[in-house]
Amino acid sequence: MDARTSTVSPEAAQDHEPSPALDATEFVRVFTNELQYTRGVTLPQASNQDKYIALVRTVLRPLIDRWQATQARQAEQNGKTVAYLSAEYLLGPQTGNALLSTGLEDTAREALSTLDIDLDELIAHEIEPGLGNGGLGRLAACFIDSLATKDISAIGYGIRYNYGIFRQTFVNGHQVEQPDTWMSHGTPWEITHPELAQPIGFAGRVEDTINSAGQPARKWVPGWYVQAVPCNYLVPGYGTDTVNTLRLWSARAADEFNLHIFNSGDFENAVRARTYAENISNVLYPEDSTPQGKELRLQQQYFFVAASIRDLVARTLERGVSYADLPQHITFQLNDTHPVVGIPELMRLLVDDHELEWDDAWSITREIFNYTCHTLLPEALEVWPVDLFGRLLPRHLEIIYRINEEFLNEVRLNTGNELLVRQMSIIQEQPFRAVRMAHLATVGSRRVNGVAALHSQLLKDNVLKDFSAYWPDKFTNVTNGVTPRRFVRLSNPELSDLLNDAIGTGWVRDLSQLSQLEPLADDSGFLEQFALVKAHNKSRIAAVLAARDGIELPSDAIYDVMVKRLHEYKRQSLKLLHVVSLYARVLAGTLNAEDIEPRVVVFGAKAAPGYRMAKETIALINAVAARINNAPELQGRLKIAFPANYNVTLAEKLIPAADLSEQISLAGKEASGTGNMKFALNGALTVGTLDGANVEIHELVGDENFFLFGMTEPDAESLAQAGYVPSKFYEKDADLKLAIDLIASGAFSNGDRSAFESIVSDWLWHDRFMALADFRSYLDIQTKVEEKYRDKAAWNRSAVLNVARTGFFSSDRSIQDYLDRIWMEK
Ligand code: TH1
């Protein structure tokens, strides 16, 4: 059985861009028709909103044709479908990508210009669906793009949040969150089917019953229901006919099921109950890499997973597939632990609803699920208190207890080690009884993978060590990747043209072809063109930031960029200490401003609303920016830009402009990172630690083309073991002391010494992620950065080699690894 519904067809392996699905005349006709009959306006009456919707509907037409053909083909082939279960999809703007995959970009531009409409203005009108927090959600979006591009029968399942990741604003330098009203311009990309809603139960009780064979059985009687309404998004492949589906579930109140709770005539309570149910898909939890132990979060998880599993299992059984053969036709990929409640849900479906024997159901279940772990931080591992879990999902808790009991009996039998039994239990006893979702995922999955080589190794050595000793073959690695369509072809058109001229257009579908650039790294003509592209992209972002944020930046400076969620382990504070130390040394007279290579430091970062240290770091960055950007002593040689609300839309403009990519987490803490890949592919050099996928980037691009610094993971581990005392580093490093003292003096807070007191004392007394220990090494490598930047030819050569040598980081390659190591592996 092959997962591919069709292998890559010869015409799909084309070396030219997709041919347009409509010509300009036809485009104009369909577009004006849409204006008239779906918006009800004439061209002169039409607002930008009307025109945007008409544009979307015009581009959707050829996609819908391909979508329907894909569904027919996939059903007929009756192969294996990959179902990606993810609580987050950080899609980014849709219009540009749809124009790309339909080959309609030039046609649309030409057609609209005959109507005096500027395509780019309409594209800019779109508000991106920010239905994810950061890397994990963006990875899911890259993966569904690659699954379609590789013609794999696949479906993404998730939640259609009414409010995605909050919109970040700064008020006096402090982060203030605003609701993300991404649907306020309508949702023209979505095809919703309220009539296909499914009821999802919660709470209630479990009863003894007799099944249809006269055997004793258990039956869950939920206490209340909510309807899951499917909202479909089209996921077009590039250079292929495949258009897959992303199915996001929206919660709607289910009155008919709740009649017994809502007293008839009790209007107020009936309305309140509606609101309660619909609350489930209302808002994305804004925590990244940290779990939210709230009941609503568990409701969200069960809601989308139950609807998704039922949807795909029912459709597969309808095709005549037997229960025993389900694992040949379905694979559920669990994106972290958020969808792991799917394991007991499939058991419940098979045992209680379909009346399979427990052992048969369990062997099917363990064949169907695979689990991807995305973290190493112990506090980021999800656990659910059993009382909360049992209240919301009483039957599922019973099932988990039975799975655990049988599993632990087996461990006991095989190892005779009672300590191991307790360590591996799916239920933790201390400090409170709770379900360990990572353990449940590992026990219930056929394969478990980490997201970069180092991360997968550390998973086996630390976080899941007992399990990897017990099941050595269960564990594997799939290094993350990013889609070259969005993050090179769409976001960096100038570089794309240069690549097309140099090596043809095949790289967009086969990024390994970038290696053909290698010889051009020694071609001075090519290096010059490459430098022009970078310069163009810097002017482009400078213009964007001027218009968007009122930030004025020089375009001839090192663009040094650190964009990612604000987290202590990612160490934005280390970057800040570097900047402050330059300023402090100029003030102290130990550094001449003229000797600083002009540099623009760009930060982009949202902090989880309840994460105090992260929010204070944001305030400190803004305070330092306010001071440094106007400091006469610096003679304009150093600027900080911190545009608010970093998102996919901004990333697409910012990443192509970067010279330097900051990937400076403490080694052993960043599972992979994916921004690091996007920067390297756009010709930025990385300054980074040996952490996550940096390790593989460093290895591939070569040490001469990478600014490596800091402790290794074993170094950091031994320092922690030895007892890390950050104040010792402060005492012995004069530059570090100068920088911290300047912040403590109130220099960035109008003399208020208390303003950043908690950050300063954290540095001195805790510094859990050892920024102070890596400070000297970081400063030294930044001096090397300046030296290299002064040698333009050497810099550009390294930048080109970064592009030439990082084709490995395509998400198409990641998906091929999932096929080879997980989905199709025998
Ligand atoms: C991120 C990891 O931090 C990052 O290193 C990795 O590149 C990315 O996932 C994709 O694999 C994670 N995001 C989350 C978000 C939540 C929980 C855990 C993680 S790990 C909500």
TrEMBL record:
<keyword id="KW-0808">Transferase</keyword>
<dbReference type="InterPro" id="IPR035090">
    <property type="entry name" value="Pyridoxal_P_attach_site"/>
</dbReference>
<dbReference type="Pfam" id="PF00343">
    <property type="entry name" value="Phosphorylase"/>
</dbReference>
<keyword id="KW-0663">Pyridoxal phosphate</keyword>
<keyword id="KW-0119">Carbohydrate metabolism</keyword>
<dbReference type="GO" id="GO:0004645">
    <property type="term" value="F:1,4-alpha-oligoglucan phosphorylase activity"/>
</dbReference>
<dbReference type="InterPro" id="IPR000811">
    <property type="entry name" value="Glyco_trans_35"/>
</dbReference>
<comment type="function">
    <text>Phosphorylase is an important allosteric enzyme in carbohydrate metabolism. Enzymes from different sources differ in their regulatory mechanisms and in their natural substrates. However, all known phosphorylases share catalytic and structural properties.</text>
</comment>
<keyword id="KW-0328">Glycosyltransferase</keyword>
<dbReference type="InterPro" id="IPR011833">
    <property type="entry name" value="Glycg_phsphrylas"/>
</dbReference>
<feature type="region of interest" description="Disordered">
    <location>
        <begin position="1"/>
        <end position="23"/>
    </location>
</feature>
<comment type="function">
    <text>Allosteric enzyme that catalyzes the rate-limiting step in glycogen catabolism, the phosphorolytic cleavage of glycogen to produce glucose-1-phosphate, and plays a central role in maintaining cellular and organismal glucose homeostasis.</text>
</comment>
<protein>
    <recommendedName>
        <fullName>Alpha-1,4 glucan phosphorylase</fullName>
        <ecNumber>2.4.1.1</ecNumber>
    </recommendedName>
</protein>
<comment type="similarity">
    <text>Belongs to the glycogen phosphorylase family.</text>
</comment>
